[in-house]
Amino acid sequence: MKKLTTQQYAELDKRYIWHPFTPMKPWCEAKEIITIERGEGEFLFDTDGRRYIDGSASIWCNVHGHNVPALNQAVIDQLNQVSHSTLLGLANPPAVLLAEQLIKIAPAGLTKVFYSDNGSTAVEVACKMAYQYWANLGRPRTRYIAFGSAYHGDTIGAVSLGGIGLFHQAFKSLCFEVDFVPPPTNERATLAAVEKLLGEHQGQHAAIVVEPLILGAGGMIMYGPDVLRQLRALADRYDTLLVFDEVMTGFGRTGKMFAADHAGVTPDLMCLSKGLTAGYMPLGVTLTTQRIFDAFYADPREGKTFFHGHTFTGHPLACAVALRSLELFEENQLLAHVNRLEPILAEMLSRARGRPFVGAARHCGLVGAIELVDANGQPFDYHWRIGGALCTRLREKGLMMRPLADVVVLMPPLAIREENFRHFCEAVLDSLSWLPEIVAQKRNENRP
Fold it and tell me: Are 167 and 210 in contact (CB under 8 A)?
C-alpha cells in the first residue's frame, strides 16, 4: 500500500468518502482531518506521528488494545488455513469452537448461536426470530416494546426499535409497529408503562427489546439491574419474549462479562458484537434458547425455516480472533482489571459533579459519562456542539474522544494500563475548566 502525506490523505478523503454519522459539509470544510495510521495498546497514532489514548475504544469495541500480538497471531494462523468459507451448508472450525465457548459463558439457558456480521444485524436477527417464532406457533404477533432514547442499529428493523428522533425519524414510515416507553430514568414509571402496554395489548407483542443497564447512543442513560429482573418477570407473566441488546455492554464493559450477569436473568435472545472480536473484525451473534430453536425445528415442507443469512456469517478470521480474545480474558484476568480501574473513574466523576456546565456525571463499569448543560441546567442547542468542541480540544492533551452530542463519553480499551487510565481521567477532568470559554465562544458564534 502506498504511503501518502497527511494532506494527501485528507484531500482524497474529502473527495471520496461519505463518513458515518457525520454532517459532511463541516467535515469537508474542516482545516484538519486526522488520519489514524497505526495503534499500539491503548494508543492510536496519526500520520504525523502524534499519539492519542483511544478514549472511545474505537467506538466502544476495543477490548485488549491495538496491535495485540496474540490476536494478530490468531488471524495469521487462520489465514494460513482458509480466509473465508461460507456457513451456508458448511461448517468451519473457528465458528464451531467459538459457539461452544460463547454458550459456556452466556447466561444459563442460552444454548444456540446464530452468526451475523455486526451489531445491527444481530438485532435484526433477533427481531425476525421473535416475529417468526410466534408465527411458527400459529400465534402471530406484530408489535414490539422498546425504550425511548434507545439505539439498536441502523438496519430498518433495528431503526424501528430506535427512540432517537435525530437518527430515526426520517425512516419512521418504513418501520414496523413499536410501542415506546419512557427511558428508565424513572425506573418505576418505565416498568409501569411496560406492564400497561402488555395488559392493554395481550398477545400482540412479539418481544420487549432493551439495552441492558446502559442506553448507549441515547446518551449513556444508566439504570439498575432490578429493572432487568422486573422485565423478565413481566415477559413471563404476559407470555412475550425478552431481548437484550448487549452489542455495547457485552464482553466486560460493565465489569461483568455481560450486563445480564448483574441481574442474574436470562433473556430469550441476546445480541452481541463490538467487543466480541475485541474490536479486530466485524462479527455479530444472536444467542437464543432451545425453546425458540425448537419452533423452527421442523420438516422443511412445513415452512418454518429461518431464511436469514449473510455472505460473511461466521467468518473464520473473525471467529478465530474472537476465540483468542475470550482466552485473553482469562489469561490476563481482564474482568478483575476492569474492577480495579472502576473506582478511579468513579472518584474522578465525583469531582466533576458541580463544575460549571456539568449537569451529571455517571458510570457503570468502565463506561463514564459527563453530561454538559447550560447555566440553567438545560441542554444546549444541538448545533452548538459543546461536547464536540471540548473533545476536539482534548486532542491537544493526547486524548481521542467522541461525544454523544453534549455527553462526554469515557470508554477506553478495557486493558488500558492503570497509569494511563489515571492520566486519561485527570485530563478529562482538567478539560472541564475550558467550558466557560467554549460556551462563550459558541454564544458569540450563534448570536442573531
Answer: no
Domains of the chain: 34-64+333-445 (3.90.1150.10), 71-331 (3.40.640.10)
Position 448 scores a pLDDT of 77
Per-residue model confidence (pLDDT) at position 121: 98
Separation of alpha carbons 123 and 243, rounded Å: 9
3-state helix, strand, coil in the chain (%, to 5): 45, 15, 40
Distance CA 435, CA 183 (A): 28
In sequence order, which residues have a C-beta less than 8 Å from that of residue 100 and are 6 or more positions away?
none
Report yes or no: 326 and 276 within 8 Å, Cβ to Cβ: no
- Do residues 156 and 171 touch, judged by C-beta distance below 8 A? yes
Could you tell me the three cell numbers for 80?
494460513
- Residue whose C-alpha cell is 392493554: 200
For cell 492503570, the residue is: 418
**Coil, strand, or helix at residue 128?**
helix
The pLDDT score that the predictor gives to residue 446 is 86
Q: Are 321 and 280 in contact (CB under 8 A)?
A: yes
* pTM metric for this prediction: 0.97
The pLDDT of residue 86 is 97
> By the 8 A CB rule, do 211 and 151 touch?
yes
Determine contact, residues 267/227, Cβ cutoff 8 Å.
no
d(CA 112, CA 443): 54
Q: How many CA atoms lie within 13 A of 29 on its CB side?
A: 4
Q: Could you tell me if residue 397 is left (phi over 0), alpha (psi between -120 and 50 degrees) or otherwise beta?
A: alpha
One DSSP character per residue, 193-234 reads HHHHHHHHTTTTEEEEEE-SSEETTTT-EE--HHHHHHHHHH
In sequence order, which residues have a C-beta less than 8 Å from that of residue 31 and are 6 or more positions away? none
- Average pLDDT over the chain, rounded to an integer: 98
For residue 132, give every residue at least 6 positions away whose Cβ sits within 8 Å of its Cβ, in sequence order, or none.
295, 296, 304, 306
Question: Cell match 442474574: residue?
Answer: 264
pLDDT at 276: 99
In tens, the pLDDT along 306-347 reads 999 999 999 999 999 999 999 999 999 999 999 999 999 999
Phi, psi of 271 (to 5 degrees): -105, 130
Q: What is the DSSP letter of 312?
A: T
